[in-house]
Amino acid sequence: MVLEHPSRMARELGRICRDASAAIMKVYNQPQQQWDVKTKADDSPVTAADLGAHKVIMRGLSQMMPRLPVLSEESANVAWSARSQWGRYWLVDPLDGTREFLDRNDEFTINIAMIEHGQPLFGMVHVPVTGVTYYGGRSCGSYRQGLEGEPERLEVRSLRLPQIDVVASHRHGNEQIQPLLDAMQQQGMNVARRQIGSSLKLCMIAEGQADFYPRIGPTCEWDTAAAQAVIEGAGGKVLDLNFKTLAYNQKDSLMNAWFMVLGDLHHPWQNWLTPALEQLRLDEQEAAEADS
């Protein structure tokens, strides 16, 4: 999979993200009682900022590539019979980290990915509060663009053993990831954990600020696709618990498998983690059966 004209793609998606960011920040800067917070059927929150950004992105993508389908968190009711026929499409989370938005901790992002044959071809993650943009893909490399200056090439860092810096969610699965951290500590690793919201966890690994992100709990495909493209362009991987690359649009459900994000791939992660993963695979299977 090779992306045609990645620089043009970055420019056009960057413009769409900035427009969506303006819609989000207009709401964010208002008093919270004006945010029009509602609860969706899956018990997750949605705000006027989510919906405003969704409208901006849908309009921008339809102008950019009118024939390419779009699957967004805020318009995800596309039948599997239809989207199973898609070869290439957009996958969008207009506001990743709505709970971070509600907490006013600034750790929320806009995620836009182009998917081709089940894999992220290109992704962009934009941070509305700072204006920083992460973008790229496996075939074109990944970059970080601030408000000023030239884009900086991203590259995962080499592990500085015995130190391993882990990023984790503020809210989800922190008890469940402990067996993985324990497995590394039992082999002499010094594991430090930092909690952060949204796709920023993956971007931290892509820019060499962390090494490992295990997600043992529910996520949807739009939560990860854009940042997965950035990770892959920086030299890392997003893998399920069987060490297979996370894939998209492979089934009716839009829920991801439990996964791990690895930076430096030149180390025996599988050997380090296998003792803990065996039980986690069983736990994942039981969780899937309970939800079915």
TrEMBL record:
A single Gene Ontology CC term: plasma membrane
Listed Pfam families: Inositol_P (PF00459)
InterPro entries the UniProt entry points to: CysQ (IPR006240), CysQ/Inositol_MonoPase (IPR050725), Inositol_monophosphatase-like (IPR000760), Inositol_monophosphatase_CS (IPR020550)
Binding sites annotated in the UniProt record for Mg(2+) 2: 93, 96, 223
Compartmental location: Cell inner membrane
Binding, Mg(2+) 1: 73, 93, 95-96, 223
Entry superkingdom: Bacteria
GO terms for biological process, alphabetical: 3'-phosphoadenosine 5'-phosphosulfate metabolic process; phosphatidylinositol phosphate biosynthetic process; sulfate assimilation
Cofactor: Mg(2+)
Assigned protein family: Belongs to the inositol monophosphatase superfamily. CysQ family.
Function recorded in the entry: Converts adenosine-3',5'-bisphosphate (PAP) to AMP.
Protein name (Swiss-Prot/TrEMBL): 3'(2'),5'-bisphosphate nucleotidase CysQ
Organism: Terasakiispira papahanaumokuakeensis
